Each structure stands twice: as C-alpha cells, then as structure tokens.
Write the structure tokens for this entry.
Amino acid sequence: MLMLSLSSLLAFWQKQKRYFAHFVDGAKNTARYTRSMSSPAILIGTSGWHYADWYGRFYPPAVKASEQLAYYARQFPAVEINSSFYHPPRLETVQHWAEIVPPEFQFSVKLYRYLTHTKHLNLDAEAVAALHAFFDTLAPLRGQLAAVLVQLPPGLAVDNGRLRNLAEQVQVARVRLGLELPLAIEFRHASWFNDQTFELMHQYRIANVISDTPGRWPMSYAVTAELVYIRLHGNRRLYSSSYTQAELTEWYEFMQTQVAEGRRVLCFFDNTSKAVAPHNAQTVLRLMEARAEANRLDL
C-alpha cells in the first residue's frame, strides 16, 4: 500500500527510473506534456460500474440499470470491465457497450479467469482456442480498447516461458484482428518481480500493473512499457476504504511524473464498496482540472 509522503514517493521514483530507464527508451519519442482530447495522457475510472450500493451514492435514483454505463461514461473517460473475468462477454454485449458511450471513451477488459486461474497461463490447444475466442469478442472496441488486464492468482509463481507464450499469442491476435491489444499484468506473487521478467515484458510491451492494497499482494513500481497501469484496491480495507485527499494527490503527482516522461496512464479504483471508488476517481479528475487551469493561467 502507499504510505509514503509525496516527496518520498517522488524520490523513490527518481531512484527507480534510472534502473528501469532502458525498458522504456521508445516512449521518449511520444508527446511529453500534452495529448489530444481523443488520446489523453491520463485516464481515470473505476473497476466496473454496476453495483447496487452505488444508487443514491453515485447514481441518481432515476437512472435505470440499463442506463448506468451511459451515465458513468458522462462522468469518466474509462472503465475497467471485471465481468469478463468470470465469463467472456458476448459479441453483441461488447457492441452495445461501444455504441452507448462517447467514441473517445476507453475500456480495459479483464482476461477470462479460465486462462489465468484454471489453466495458469498453460496455453495448450484448448486454452489457445479460448484465448483467441475471447479476443474475437473485443473486435467492436477497435479504437476504444485501452488495455487487456491479466490478473494472475496469488499462488502462481514466475514462469517466463508461459508469459512469453501468452505474449506471442497476443501478437498473433493483433495481426489476425487488426486490433490493438495492449497487455497489462497484475502479478500477485512476488517472484515475478525480477530482471528477466521485466526484460521480457519490455520486449513485448507489456505493462506491469502497480497494485495498491493493504499489503494483501506485493507491489512493484516497475515501468515496463509506455503504458503505466495503476489499480487502487483500497489501502486500509481491501475494496472498501477511501483514499485521503493527500494520498490521492500523491498518486496524481506520480501519474504526472510518468506523463512528463512520455508515458500514458490508466488508473482504476477498485475500492467499489458504497461508491467509494467513483468519488475517489472524481477527486483525481478535479486535481487534473485544477492543474490544467493553472497551466492555462501560466500561458
């Protein structure tokens, strides 16, 4: 979990970025401080949008369940799809998602747990077929797919052979579908945090997920791609505790540091209990707006 002061966090990053710099040389050529509105440098959202206890706390009572995503998309620029972890979405469902949000809205879709928690990334013929079938359903999100999130189980220790096989299958799917499939992996076993794994991730442009919890799973600030992916699960009570204004400011400054070095950031709040997540996300959006206004006044 993040228990550092802003100065400590930034000092930590200044030290770590020298170590990880060779992983992201290619990102230096991208725009550093400004992006077009269709491709903002920082995308903020929540992990899912359909929760019963968000009524009255985030959703007005008049908003129907079928209208929730459209309402959500007017508040935030991106969402992380969690339902796909439990069962692959139908093509028609994904098409519907794409149709009811603004064209610039972005999705991160969590990979089906059969591949991560049942097969443990052991991509035999059956698993490869399931993987490509999953990617097929994402075709309607062309231009709106910010990432494919791979959440690994805590008991799965490092296996770079399986990681490489996954990366190569993703490359096959990219060519076959003509679809960007940016990959981000949330490791929940500390053995994955090593030089060989980070080198492999850099080679295949796979983002390491920076995952903040109350010490439930390990976390690494390693940056292995031009995408920086952050998941904030709640740093005191998993899935339920709110981040303080000071903590959210620290995270925002960390994101700004990444943008200044030519990267783009996805940040999703997974502290979804009692609508804590959307309120924390809105706070970060207000920080972004205040920074943008200050920059305009400086011109």
User: Anything to note?
Assistant: Residues 6-24+39-294 form a domain with the TIM Barrel fold (CATH 3.20.20.410). The CA atoms of residues 231 and 249 lie 15 Å apart. The chain has one domain: 6-24+39-294.
